[in-house]
Amino acid sequence: MSSSATTRHPAVGEIAPDIALPSTAGGIVTLSSFRGNQNVLLAFFPAAFTSTCTAEMCAFRDDYAAFSGHNVVVFPVSVDQVPSLREYKAKYEMPVDLLSDFRREAATAYGVLIPDRLVANRAYFLIDKGGVIRWAHVEEHAGKRRENAEILAEIAKLA
What we know:
By secondary structure, the protein is α/β, with parallel strands linked by helices. Helix content is 26%, strand content 23%. Strands 5-4-3-8-9 form a five-stranded mixed β-sheet. A two-stranded antiparallel sheet has the order 1-2. Strands 6-7 form a two-stranded antiparallel ribbon. The N and C termini lie far apart (37 Å). The protein has helices at residues 51-62, 64-68, 82-91, 105-109, 148-156, and strands spanning 20-22, 28-30, 39-44, 72-78, 99-100, 113-114, 119-120, 123-127, 133-138. The protein is globular, with a radius of gyration of 14 Å. It has five helices and nine strands, in the order βββααβαβαββββα. It has a single domain, classed as 3-Layer(aba) Sandwich (Glutaredoxin), CATH 3.40.30.
């Protein structure tokens, strides 16, 4: 299937692969810097300014308080470069910082790179304060997405 990645995804119960990616806030965000402090939701998405991705990012924006109220930082990750992501974030008034995986290292580490399109498949990895993956979902087709209610239900299980 051309829309799915060909490598293995890290499994629930495994330590999440560390990432170091440039952020729309400036600087580099490392996943390991959140250990012991906050839960993290990595939300891979194929590309900024596309319909499904924009609906998803606006949903994260609209439910920002629900995520932060559970001590979860949401990091949307795409292969777009930081300047494009900054414009995207500003246009849709997103409170979350977006991460640029322009070199495709994070998408590769998480097994979500679509090799023939060089974008990440839509995928979610909920990582607890200990750095362990507690929930993961990789979409069968990048045009589909999880609703925030489903993601928040998984987050509620961390408590």
